[in-house]
Amino acid sequence: MSFNKIKGFDFKRLTEAVKTEIPVIMEQSANTAKNHFLKSFRDGGFTDENLETWKPLKHLNKTRMRAIKRQKKRYDQGKSDRWDAKLGILVGKGHYLRDSIRVARIGGKGFLIVSDLGLGSSKDYAPVHNFGLRAGRGRGFKMPKRQFIGKSKVLEEKLYRRLVTKINAILNK
Q: Residue 147 CB: number of other CB atoms within 10 A?
């Protein structure tokens, strides 16, 4: 018995359609993952099953407090669409850490999202914050874990739903 056709279903057409859609699906999935990780900075925490907010800063200097108050005032007046109550955490003036998140590789078997700020230098900035490692001179101090990138059940579910929707669209053509 041939499995090429069962009750008029054309497996060869399905296989070809899926092969052509894989690069599109992978690119869309990689961008969805990147956006999920960028959302950590807006939310002030990482979402695995639920949002786990970052530990607040111990202190904010006067300059930082004035900047936060100024931004809130602009938001309240409708002059800005950005306001984050946790502005002081991992989001400095330049947004370097947030902007370092990128799609490093997309392939047939998956994709890789990285934050490479500080990697390879004496300041491993991204991993220190993401995993809560030791930082500073000498023995340094233990940085609180403020994860912004990693495995997420919410993200996996989002990617799974997108894949099922795409496959259903191919089957219904």
A: 19
